[in-house]
């Protein structure tokens, strides 16, 4: 069964995001799409909920199954189709908005076309709510349409992991392998772009992956490492002043260092040193 709703593209509107079309195809053996570069001026997301299908890019064919997704930006060449032996079931949406392209690019979504969704339950629910709204009211309730489209996109952003960059386990291992090096370099100025490049993902994805693996942000981890380093200096070299220790630990401002130390240790650096001497 195929469900789809085509909506008018509004040239003037006040919304961040609106859908142009939304649909769901079940066991769609004959589903095949080819669009030349420059054909579409919207963004689209398709995600597979069952069966098998294919996306062709740069002369290569990629197999997609349940939990896989693909994202196309405006003007991109597009070629995707269902397997005839194991027809895919797929949900999709085409959407637009003036700031969406730059927003998605800034958080790293322009770097990849193929994505992996660890779970699709919430995304499928968000998509179904949007599809039902479009089926029942077309474009007569634009605020609701925009809200539901934004909810779907937010779900996708929070769930999706680049398929090309490896499995979830592989990405987690990359973060874990970086931790000793990050600890060693903690007193140096923190460069988020450098660490993201070391992992092979965007800065946005690096922060997401790091939080998933360590349960803290990259900066929180660096702060803990710097404080640990400062505690060692406080006890190992009594000739160093607190100002000098702050600088060696990565803090040019000793007042800020004192504030962080107090917040994390419950006492000032000077008090901490006095406890052991």
Automatic annotation (TrEMBL):
The keyword Transferase does not apply. Gene3D superfamilies: Homeodomain-like, Regulatory protein AraC. It comes from the Bacteria. Pfam families: AraC_binding (PF02311), HTH_18 (PF12833). CDD domains: cupin_MmsR-like_N. Residues 176-275 form the HTH araC/xylS-type domain. GO terms for molecular function: DNA-binding transcription factor activity; sequence-specific DNA binding. Keywords: DNA-binding, Transcription, Transcription regulation. This is AraC-type DNA-binding protein. It comes from Gracilibacillus ureilyticus.
């Amino acid at each position: 069964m195929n469900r789809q709703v085509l909506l008018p593209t509004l040239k003037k509107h006040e919304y961040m995001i609106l859908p142009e079309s939304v649909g769901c195809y079940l066991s769609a053996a004959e589903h095949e799409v080819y669009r030349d570069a420059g054909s579409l001026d919207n963004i689209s997301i398709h995600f597979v909920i069952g069966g098998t299908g294919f996306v062709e890019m740069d002369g290569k064919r990629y197999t997609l199954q349940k939990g896989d997704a693909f994202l196309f930006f405006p003007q991109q060449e597009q070629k995707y189709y269902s397997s005839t032996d194991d027809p895919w079931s797929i949900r999709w949406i085409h959407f637009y908005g003036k700031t969406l392209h730059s927003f998605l690019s800034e958080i790293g979504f322009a770097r990849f076309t193929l994505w992996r969704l660890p779970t699709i339950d919430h995304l499928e629910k968000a998509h179904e709510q949007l599809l039902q709204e479009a089926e029942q009211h077309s474009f007569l309730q634009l605020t609701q349409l925009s809200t539901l489209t934004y909810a779907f996109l937010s779900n996708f952003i929070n769930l999706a992991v680049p398929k090309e960059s490896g499995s979830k386990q592989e990405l987690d291992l990359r973060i874990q392998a970086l931790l000793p090096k990050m600890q060693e370099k903690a007193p140096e100025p923190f460069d988020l772009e450098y660490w993201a490049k070391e992992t092979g993902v965007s800065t946005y994805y690096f922060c997401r992956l790091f939080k998933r693996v360590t349960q803290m942000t990259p900066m929180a981890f660096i702060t803990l490492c710097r404080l640990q380093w400062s505690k060692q200096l406080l006890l190992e070299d009594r000739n160093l002043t607190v100002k000098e220790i702050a600088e060696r630990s990565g803090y040019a401002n000793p007042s800020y260092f004192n504030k962080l130390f107090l917040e994390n240790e419950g006492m000032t650096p000077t008090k901490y040193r006095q406890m052991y001497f």
